[in-house]
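Team,

Forwarding the record for the chain on the shared tracking sheet. I've put the sequence and predicted structure together so nobody has to dig through attachments.
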Amino acid sequence: MLDEIFEELVLGFDGVAVALARDLTKIRTGRANPAIFDGIRVDYYGTPTPLNQVGSIKVADATLLTIAPWEKPMIPIIEKAILTSDLGLNPTNDGTIVRVPIPPLTGERRRDLVKLVKKAGEEHKIACRGHRREANDTVKLLQKDGELSEDEMHRALKTIQDHTDTAVAKVEAAIAAKEKEILEV
């Protein structure tokens, strides 16, 4: 029974780590990365569609992304979607592809991005603590129902805390790595 609780807890922590990694890839660092467009939706014949489903996104060089839409009429729609996003990018087109230069980050923008990273990290730490609370509640309920002795409950709570500490350390390491990447000039 306890093994199932620990297994579910670790799976929850793994989900938090995956979600954090996905969220951090969306934060631009001054290098061209197609993942920054993951949150952008374009109006494709009345349906909000992810940008990567209306054209192919390629990294031309370290500071330039290109988007080759599958349909030519999508070019102005893609440009508008990028302009209205909060990425701060200015796309241009040559009639066949959309070029998105990635400008170097200013010191102020770097600080703003670090704040964003820390906020995302804190949200994911809260998610870890939520998983810990659920596991603790389950263990305490088992002890209350007489399925666990008090000693077993305390050992289980310590194991849950150890798993939580490991998961939070992974979140902090990911935040620190992304922060270093952003502050790198």
